[in-house]
């Protein structure tokens, strides 16, 4: 179950049962799921916060966007009832302490995702969420994980202007790969893997006059593995061009590639104790040219690496920042505008 690989809700184990503190009338709780929310104060408090987050997330949305967010909430409720069980079905018996912790993590995730539905730089942003839970066909009676849980979330702009239509179309195309939309190949998508937990969260990192930058946090756990793994990538939507950013939007020609590699390699070796793995040096050529690894700051170009790519897992997902002063001579005409725009 999700709780057995997630941390952060251990305080639920110490809670004293109290009724009537949830967002609904606990006297009318009729399912094990509802009774679980009412029995533990911390979970009841989370339920109240979630109700407020949901109401806030709906504020100011168009009729179409409201329906999408409402659909996501219904799907989440059905998911939450099943995600902390052993058979991916609503639980009938009382929830135990592990189950309470599992529910707490689900509530925390949902609240955080609802909080992304808000105004950002004049745009009304909301999230499109999809949830799945399915039995693990290889799970034994004593398996720690008997169901696979899937959580996917990505932003949309509530609007019908050219920018909103183009941005939303790119987001729809991206999420189609997760097996939830028509035309996706569900046989090879993460959503079809019943032996792995997945959480893919795409959120707005920054909005400027020239771009909308998104961060994509993709976490997964293969049942039976020692630990989960993750990647952090970025997507940059150019608002004037209504398309995704490509390398030539930032750098002119090809002359930037070699010096950028050298700068990145030097910074990696400076910041990682003992330097990067020797066998990873040749891969830096490819890594530094991938725009999905790029993020932008006032200090410089941020280049993202993933766990295990250049050093041990304990170092996490390393990043390096290359000062713009070292790169300005290679920038394209549009580079400065995209990088420095506010």
**SSE succession:** HHHHEEEHEEEEHHEEEH
- Helix run count: 8
Domains counted in the coordinates: how many? 2
- Please, what is the average pLDDT? 88
Report helical residue fraction.
25-40%
CATH top level assignment of the largest domain: Alpha Beta
Q: Report the CATH architecture of the largest domain.
A: 2-Layer Sandwich
Q: Provide the CATH topology of the largest domain.
A: Heat Shock Protein 90
Estimated structural class: alpha+beta
> What kind of assembly state do the chains in view correspond to?
single chain
Distance between the termini: 44 Å
Tell me what portion of residues adopts beta-strand conformation: 15-25%
Task: List how many beta strands DSSP finds.
Answer: 10
Task: Tell me the name of the CATH homologous superfamily of the largest domain.
Answer: Fervidobacterium nodosum Rt17-B1 like
Please state the overall shape, judged from the principal axes of the Cα atoms.
globular
């Amino acid at each position: 179950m999700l709780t057995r690989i997630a941390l952060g809700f251990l305080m639920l184990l110490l809670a004293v049962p109290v009724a009537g503190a949830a967002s609904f009338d606990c006297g009318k709780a009729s399912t094990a799921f509802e009774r679980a929310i009412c029995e533990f104060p911390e979970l009841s408090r989370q339920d109240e916060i979630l109700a407020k987050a949901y109401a806030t997330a709906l504020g100011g949305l168009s009729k179409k966007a409201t329906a999408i967010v409402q659909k996501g909430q219904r799907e989440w409720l059905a998911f939450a009832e099943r995600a902390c069980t052993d058979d991916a079905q609503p639980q009938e018996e009382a929830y135990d302490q592990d189950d309470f912790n599992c529910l707490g993590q689900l509530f925390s995730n949902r609240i955080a995702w609802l909080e992304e539905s808000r105004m950002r730089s004049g745009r009304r942003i909301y999230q499109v969420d999809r949830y799945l839970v399915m039995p693990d066909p290889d799970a034994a009676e004593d398996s720690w994980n008997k169901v696979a849980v899937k959580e996917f979330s990505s932003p949309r702009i509530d609007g019908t202007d050219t920018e909103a239509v183009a941005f939303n179309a790119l987001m729809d195309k991206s999420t189609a790969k997760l097996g939830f939309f028509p035309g996706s190949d569900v046989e090879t998508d993460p959503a079809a893997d019943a032996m792995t937990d997945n959480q893919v969260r795409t959120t707005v990192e920054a909005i400027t006059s020239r771009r909308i930058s998104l961060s994509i946090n993709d976490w997964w756990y293969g049942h039976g593995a020692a630990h989960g793994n993750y990647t952090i990538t970025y997507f940059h939507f150019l608002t004037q061009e209504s398309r995704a950013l490509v390398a030539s939007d930032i750098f002119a020609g090809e002359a930037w590639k070699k010096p950028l590699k050298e700068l990145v390699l030097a910074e990696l070796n400076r910041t990682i104790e003992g330097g990067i793995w020797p066998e990873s040096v040749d891969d830096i050529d490819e890594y530094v040219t991938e725009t999905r690894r790029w993020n932008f700051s006032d200090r410089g170009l941020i280049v993202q690496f993933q766990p295990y790519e250049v050093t041990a897992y304990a170092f996490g997902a390393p990043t390096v920042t290359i000062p713009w002063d070292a790169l300005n001579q290679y920038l394209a005409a549009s580079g400065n505008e995209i990088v420095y725009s506010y």
